[in-house]
Every structure is written in structure tokens, then in C-alpha cells.
From TrEMBL:
Function: May play the central regulatory role in sporulation. It may be an element of the effector pathway responsible for the activation of sporulation genes in response to nutritional stress. Spo0A may act in concert with spo0H (a sigma factor) to control the expression of some genes that are critical to the sporulation process.
Protein's organism: Pseudoflavonifractor intestinihominis
An annotated Gene Ontology molecular function: ATP binding
Membrane topology: Multi-pass membrane protein
Pfam families the UniProt entry points to: HATPase_c, HisKA, MCP-like_PDC_1, Response_reg
The protein, known as: Stage 0 sporulation protein A homolog
Domain Histidine kinase: 469-690
Keyword Methyltransferase: no
Transmembrane segments: 12-33, 284-304
Cell compartments where the protein resides: Cell membrane
Domain Response regulatory: residue ranges: 714-835
Keyword annotations from UniProtKB, A to Z: ATP-binding, Cell membrane, Kinase, Membrane, Nucleotide-binding, Phosphoprotein, Transferase, Transmembrane, Transmembrane helix, Two-component regulatory system
CDD domains: HisKA, PDC1_DGC_like, REC_hyHK_CKI1_RcsC-like
Broad class of enzyme this protein falls into: transferase
Length: 838
């Protein structure tokens, strides 16, 4: 009895053990099934997301073809002397056809013709629309005839998100464009095939939600926050694993699958995990655990069958892992037996060869489409002997690119032999992939790099020539300064010679200063630091003052100089300094490159154009002119034409590049007409805001007040350079001014603090000084507890003469700014302006 109990107990224990083992096996099987479902769903989801992304790109490419075709028709209308109304009529007809083909509210075509907006569907305000500042217009002109896609933005008329496709037309400045409404249902028809309870999101490169298909009825802000959460997980890779999931706004666990398009947009699809794991049907798995003992035999058979299926699936999976969907033909080649098996065949060869056969027949068939000049090398590289040799050398991946015929055209394809000794010791995978687009882009990129290298070489040579010329041009006035200084020292008894030498020293110094200013100005422009400083000023008065300097110079050179002004709005808002630079460069060039007896004419005219009037500056001369070949390089920074004249000209060749840069910075235009030996004509058109109204009566009264006098004034001069101190002190002393000298900023603060209130009439402050620079000293003086600390005029005297330097002095509390070397007349003007308004 005891033995029987022991036997029963053993059987029970064995049964319990078997039940436990079955339960463990069942749970483990459920886990494996879950993992496999998730893995397969990830592969399927990623593939489906990729197919949606490809479909989206096909839509974009169809729009590209539509606008290319439309551009051809518009160019034909333009070339046949068509006008804007003809283009608009054609666009309206074209738009109606697009609407029939694509659907309502999907696209809106329009064009820029002769500087005006021509639209199939005109909208209010298109005449005033500033299309020149838009990205789609500027990018189209810069693309050189290629179709460009803008970023998605909100349409100013409809408020809907759109992106613009544009292409430059044959005539300069004309552009054809088409707005595409991203929310249009017809643009995303593939989303109708989404799996049940799935959601679809389309985001741009910045993660902005462009289009969505979801069951939730919520606002766009909430959806955007949800899309941002998805994009963050995609970017950091946290959503890449097969078993990764997220919780949606309803608390449902979802899998995330995505694909990135070639333009940077991202397609995202989410599927509920419950749907993936068969939902409530998991109860079947739970029931299987309860009847595991009864179905043990069946389970064993199923396990054996699954093992066999897994073996076949593993073999197929190994093949799939080696290959990718991008190959148009795939063959398994048994290099031991010399046979092949077609896994995937090229469509043009399906009728010519069976799916299995001898490898020699495969090579002979491929020979018919391989480019004739390549086949011998192809046959040598992929013969059975070559494959066996690579296998013996353990070369797992081998191949290259060649040209293959598809119908009547040749394309670049890539061929590879892939070998894995563990998975298939007697076989290699022979696969073919279409790489025509990538190859052409690679070849184009190579050409671009070669052109860039040549351009860099030319630029380097041009800069080398420029610096060589610049060195000579700078040495010429410098040698004159040194030479005439020595002559002046040796002719102390002859006042006439001394005066002549000093005039030549001054002239050479001004030449050297002009050279340095040109070089610094171009350097700032290339660094992008030459900002506009717009303010109100009298254009007519400024032009007359600028022209007065050149009128005297023209008289000395025996040339006739005339000025014609047709301005009815004299007060404008603009950058006075930069307009002066344009005038100075153009007029100085006309004087420099003309012979005695030449006529030089300056004309300024005003044209009304909405709020901003256009002011046209024309500088025309009968000088030596320029050759047609040099006109193409007139605005190059490192180019100068070699010319032969009776006078020696000095310059860097930077004047015209500076002029063009300044004109473009002010949204203007410049054109030039020139004939060698006859003269040149420069026309600059600038949009400036005209200011209406009369000048303030009080300002006129102040202008008519008694003349300004420096005599008897006391000025504090802060300067750390002994020579500059001596020069400035002498200039002021010649006008009976009492000068208080300070060798640094800290000493200037101490002297002013110790002086009696209102005893110092003005302060001339150098910027770069030890202990305390000019700006620091100015702030310290303004902060003093003295009644005149806040009002005493402080004028900056520095070699830093650019707009940002002037802004720094203004922020530090200074009242004026003059640059070194000191121009005596400008110094007197600055002192008069500041001290009159104390």
C-alpha cells in the first residue's frame, strides 16, 4: 500500500510537473508569438509608412512636371511678344484643366510677368504684393531654371497652410509659381487604405504638422503637441525598437511606424497594440493553457510543424536580410554546380530565360543588355571562376556600377555578389539595382566640385593679383609722403617750395586714406557687417554739397562739370552716409578716368512709386570708357582693367564692387553703359521714403543766428598718442582755444570732475586708450554728480569710422563722432553742432 502511494505520488508529481512544463511552454510560446507579431508588424508598418512617403513624393513630382510643362507654354507666350493679359488668360484655362484633373481647392497658379503679378485667380492687393522679398521668388531666380519647393507657410488670403512651387522663366525676372494646399484631400488619397483604428500624420522638416487622419475630434494645437511628442521619439531613436509603444490621448497603447521623404518631410503611422495582438482573440491563447494536458500530443505535433516552418521562414528571412526591396533582379547562384535560381527577375528578361537553369545561360542573356564596351570586363568579373576565387578569399561583398539598356535607353545599374558562408556555403546572391539617379547626381556633384576647385583657383589668383596691385598703389602715395617730407626738411628757407611740398604730402595722404577706406569697406561687406543706418535728411542739399567738392576738382583738371536736379520731395529717409559713398565713387571715377576737356554730368531725378519714391542718380562722362570684355567683370572685387591714359590713376579697383553692394543693400538697381574711347554712363535707382512737410521754423531761425566762434572756449582733449595730441592741440590753439590735455580716459574723468561746473565747453574723446577707453570714460562722466555732467558735449575722435562704431559712441552718451585722420573742417562742424545745442 505504501509502495502504491509512492507510485501514485510519483505519477501525480510527474503529471503536475508535466502540467507545469506545458504551462511554462505555453506561456513561453505566447511570449514568442507576441514578439513575432510585433516584429512582423514593425516591418509591415515601416514598409507601409515608406509606401505612403513614396506616394507623397510622387504627388510632389507630378506637381514638378506640371509646372515645368506650364513654364514652357508661358515662355512661348513671352517669346511671341505676349503680354500679361495673354498669360493670365492661358493660366485661367490651364487652372480649369488642373481643377478637372486634380480636384477643387488643390492648386493656385500665378506668375510674375514684367514685374507684375498675373494670377489665374486674381486676389485683392496683388498689385501691392511684395513678391521680390518672398523665398519662392528669390529661390527660383537663384536656381537657374530648376524647379524649387518652398517651406510650408500660412496663405495670407485663405489662412490655409500651403507650399509654393516656382520656376524662373526664360525672360529675366519672370517667374511661374503655383501654391499647393497641403490640406487638400486629393493630395493624400493613399490614407484611405489605412488599417483600422490607425492614425496618419505628415510633418515637415521642422516637425510642423501638415496633414493628419485620426479619429480624434480635437484642436490643431493639441494635435501639434502630440506630433511634437512623436517627432522627438523618432529623432532620438526611442521609437525604433519593435516592442516600443506610446500611449495616445485616450490612454490607448500604440505602435509607431514612420518614414522620412527625400525633402525632409516625415510620414508617421500609429496602430493600436491591441489590434496588432489580435485584441480579444487572445482569449484563445488563454484557453489553450487550460486544455494543455489534453492537447499535449497535438501541441507536440504543432511544435514539430512550427519548427519545420520556422526553418523555411528562417531560410527565406536570411535571403530577405541579405537583399533589399530596391533590387530589380535577384538570383541565387550555386557556384559549385554552376546553376542559378531566380528569386526576382527583371521584367525585360522574364520572357527570355527560365527561373532556373545554367549560370552560363544567365550570363549570355545578360550580355544582350550590357553596354558593349563593358561586357568583357563584366563577364570576366562575374564568371564562375571569379566567383569561386572570391569565395576562397572570403570576399563577402563584391560589385560595381555599369550601364545597362532598358528598352531604348541606357541607365546606370549596380551589380553585387553577396556571400555568407554560414547561411549558404555553396551559394552567392547575385543582385541588380537601378542607381541611375544616384550615379548621375554623383557625376554632377563631381563636376560641381571640379568647377568649385577651378573657381577657387581663379579667386586665389585674382586675390594674389589684387594684393600685388594694392601693395603698389599704397606704396605710391606713401613714397610721395616720405619723399616730400624729406624735401620739405631740406628747403626750410624757400617758403614756396615748402608750401608746394606740403600740398603734395596732403594730396598723397588723402589718396592713401581713400585706398585704406575702400579695402576696409569691402572687407566689412564680405563679412556681412555693413548695416543700414536710415534717418531723415535733405537729399537735394546733400547732393549739392557732395557735388561741390568735385566741381572744384574738375575746374583744377580742366574738365566741365554740370549738375541737374529734379527733386520735388527733398526730405527723404535713408542712409545718408552710404548714398554719399555711391556719389563719391561714381564721380571720382569719372574724374579719374577722363582727360582734360571732358564733360561730366550728374543728374538726380525723382519718380513717384506708391509710398516709396524712386530716386535715380545718373553719372555720365565723356572719358576713356571701358571695353565690352571688362564690363562683364566691372563689379568683381579683385578685377581692374588695364588702361592707358595721359594721367596716372591710383586705386584699389574696389570702388564699383562697393557701389553695387551698397545699391543692393538699399534694394536698388545699378546699370552701366560704356564705350571704349567715348565715355561711360552709370544709372543708380534707389527706393527712398519721401517725407512731406516744411522744415521746422525754429530750426530755420537757429540757422540764421549769429556765426559760431571757437575763440575763448575751453576744451578737454583725451588722447594717448603724443603725435595726435600735438596735432589736435595745435589745431585748436590756432583758434584761440584753451586745451586741457588728458593722456587716458581715467585722467579725463579726473580733470573734468575737478573743473568748475560749466567751465569746460566740450570734450574730444579718443576711443582706444589705456586704463579706461573712450566709451567707458564717457559713461563715467555722464554718471558724475555735477550739474554739467549730463549736458557737456562729448565728441568721439577715432579711427573706427563704421556705423556700428558710431552706434557704440551714441550708446555711451556721446554727442558726435569724427574719424581719424582729423579733417579740420569736419572738426569745426562737429564742435559747432554740439556746442550750439548745449
Amino acid at each position: 500500500m505504501k509502495e502504491k502511494k509512492i507510485s501514485v505520488s510519483s505519477n501525480t508529481a510527474l503529471s503536475i510537473l508535466m502540467l507545469v512544463l506545458v504551462a511554462v511552454l505555453l506561456l513561453f510560446s505566447v511570449f514568442l508569438v507576441r514578439v513575432k507579431l510585433l516584429e512582423n508588424t514593425q516591418n509591415l508598418g515601416m514598409a507601409l509608412a515608406k509606401s505612403y512617403a513614396v506616394e507623397e513624393e510622387m504627388h510632389l513630382d507630378s506637381f514638378r512636371q506640371i509646372i515645368i510643362l506650364a513654364a514652357q507654354y508661358v515662355d512661348e507666350i513671352d517669346s511671341d511678344a505676349g503680354n500679361g493679359s495673354e498669360v493670365q488668360s492661358w493660366l485661367q484655362d490651364y487652372f480649369s484643366k488642373l481643377t478637372v484633373m486634380l480636384g477643387e481647392n488643390m492648386v493656385d497658379p500665378y506668375a510674375v510677368i514684367d514685374g507684375e503679378i498675373v494670377a489665374a485667380n486674381p486676389w485683392d492687393g496683388d498689385a501691392a504684393y511684395d513678391y521680390r522679398s518672398t523665398d519662392w521668388y528669390q529661390d527660383a531666380l537663384a536656381a537657374g531654371g530648376e524647379v524649387v519647393f518652398s517651406d510650408v507657410y500660412q496663405d495670407a488670403i485663405t489662412g490655409e497652410p500651403v507650399f509654393t512651387i516656382s520656376k524662373a522663366l526664360a525672360r529675366s525676372g519672370d517667374v511661374l509659381a503655383m501654391d499647393v494646399y497641403i490640406h487638400s484631400q486629393g493630395l493624400h488619397n493613399t490614407t484611405q487604405t489605412l488599417p483600422g483604428n490607425s492614425s496618419y500624420y505628415l510633418c515637415d522638416t521642422n516637425g510642423t504638422l501638415l496633414y493628419t487622419v485620426t479619429r480624434w475630434q480635437t484642436d490643431e494645437k493639441t494635435l501639434q503637441m502630440y506630433a511634437d511628442y512623436l517627432m522627438e521619439g523618432i529623432r532620438d531613436g526611442s521609437l525604433f525598437a519593435y516592442d516600443t509603444s506610446i500611449t495616445d490621448m485616450e490612454g490607448v497603447e500604440r505602435g509607431v511606424y514612420y518614414s522620412t521623404m527625400s525633402n525632409g518631410w516625415t510620414v508617421i503611422m500609429t496602430i493600436p497594440i491591441r489590434t496588432i495582438l489580435m485584441g480579444d482573440r487572445n482569449m484563445v491563447v488563454n484557453l489553450l493553457a487550460g486544455v494543455a494536458v489534453l492537447l499535449f500530443a497535438v501541441l507536440t505535433a504543432m511544435v514539430i510543424r512550427d519548427l519545420q516552418q520556422n526553418k523555411r521562414i528562417k531560410k527565406a528571412g536570411n535571403t530577405i536580410r541579405i537583399l533589399s526591396d530596391s533590387f530589380y533582379a535577384v538570383y541565387r547562384v550555386n557556384f559549385r554546380e554552376g546553376t542559378y535560381e531566380a528569386i526576382k527577375m527583371s521584367r525585360d528578361l522574364e520572357s527570355q530565360m527560365p527561373r532556373t537553369g545554367g549560370y552560363d545561360f544567365l550570363l549570355a542573356t545578360v550580355k544582350q543588355v550590357v553596354e558593349s564596351g563593358t561586357y568583357q570586363e563584366f563577364e570576366l568579373s562575374f564568371s564562375l571562376e571569379s566567383i569561386r576565387q572570391r569565395v576562397s578569399e572570403h570576399i563577402a561583398d563584391y560589385g560595381g556600377d555599369y550601364r545597362r539598356r532598358f528598352g531604348e535607353i541606357y541607365k546606370w545599374v549596380n551589380i553585387r555578389t553577396l556571400y555568407d558562408e554560414k547561411l549558404a556555403p555553396d551559394e552567392v546572391i547575385l543582385c541588380f539595382r537601378d542607381v541611375d539617379i544616384e550615379k548621375r547626381q554623383q557625376l554632377q556633384h563631381t563636376i560641381i566640385l571640379q568647377e568649385a576647385l577651378e573657381a577657387a583657383k581663379k579667386s586665389t589668383k585674382a586675390k594674389s593679383d589684387f594684393f600685388s596691385s594694392m601693395s603698389h598703389d599704397m606704396r605710391t602715395p606713401l613714397n610721395a609722403i616720405i619723399g616730400f617730407s624729406q624735401l620739405a626738411q631740406n628747403s626750410q628757407g624757400d617758403c614756396c617750395k615748402m608750401w608746394d611740398y606740403m600740398q603734395k604730402i596732403e594730396f598723397s595722404g588723402k589718396q592713401l586714406l581713400a585706398l585704406i577706406n575702400d579695402i576696409l569697406e569691402l572687407s566689412k561687406m564680405e563679412a556681412g557687417k555693413n548695416a543700414l543706418n536710415n534717418k531723415r535728411f535733405n537729399l537735394k542739399q546733400y547732393v549739392e554739397e557732395s557735388a561741390g567738392i568735385f566741381r572744384t576738382q574738375a575746374e583744377h583738371q580742366g574738365k566741365h562739370f554740370s549738375v541737374e536736379l529734379d527733386i520735388h520731395n527733398e526730405e527723404v529717409v535713408g542712409d545718408e552716409f552710404k548714398i554719399g559713398q555711391i556719389l563719391n565713387n561714381l564721380l571720382s571715377n569719372s574724374l579719374k578716368y577722363s582727360n582734360p576737356g571732358a564733360d561730366i554730368r550728374l543728374e538726380v531725378r525723382q519718380f513717384d512709386f506708391q509710398r516709396h519714391s524712386k530716386y535715380q542718380i545718373v553719372v555720365e562722362d565723356t572719358g576713356i570708357g571701358m571695353s565690352k570684355s571688362f564690363l562683364e567683370h566691372l563689379f568683381d572685387p579683385y578685377a581692374r582693367e588695364t588702361c592707358f591714359t595721359s594721367a596716372v590713376t591710383v586705386g584699389t579697383g574696389l570702388g564699383m564692387p562697393i557701389v553695387k553692394s551698397l545699391v543692393q543693400q538699399m534694394s536698388g538697381e545699378i546699370s552701366v553703359e560704356s564705350t571704349l574711347g567715348k565715355g561711360s554712363k552709370f544709372t543708380v535707382t534707389l527706393p527712398l521714403e519721401a517725407v512731406s512737410g516744411e522744415e521746422d521754423a525754429q530750426e530755420k531761425k537757429e540757422e540764421q543766428s549769429s556765426p559760431f566762434q571757437l575763440a575763448g572756449r575751453k576744451i578737454l582733449l583725451a588722447e594717448d598718442n603724443e603725435l595726435n595730441m600735438e596735432i589736435a592741440t595745435e589745431i585748436l590753439s590756432m583758434n584761440d582755444v584753451e586745451v586741457l590735455q588728458a593722456v587716458n580716459g581715467a585722467e579725463a574723468v579726473r580733470i573734468f570732475q575737478a573743473a568748475a561746473p560749466y567751465s569746460i565747453d566740450a570734450i574730444l574723446m579718443d576711443m582706444q586708450m589705456p586704463e579706461m577707453d573712450g566709451c567707458q570714460a564717457a559713461r563715467a562722466i555722464r554718471a558724475l554728480d555735477k550739474p554739467d555732467a549730463a549736458t557737456v558735449p562729448i565728441i568721439a575722435v577715432t579711427a573706427n569710422a563704421f556705423a556700428e562704431d558710431i552706434a557704440k559712441t551714441t550708446e555711451a552718451g556721446m554727442n558726435g563722432h569724427i574719424s581719424k585722420p582729423i579733417d579740420v573742417s569736419l572738426l569745426y562742424q562737429a564742435l559747432e553742432k554740439c556746442m550750439k545745442h548745449e
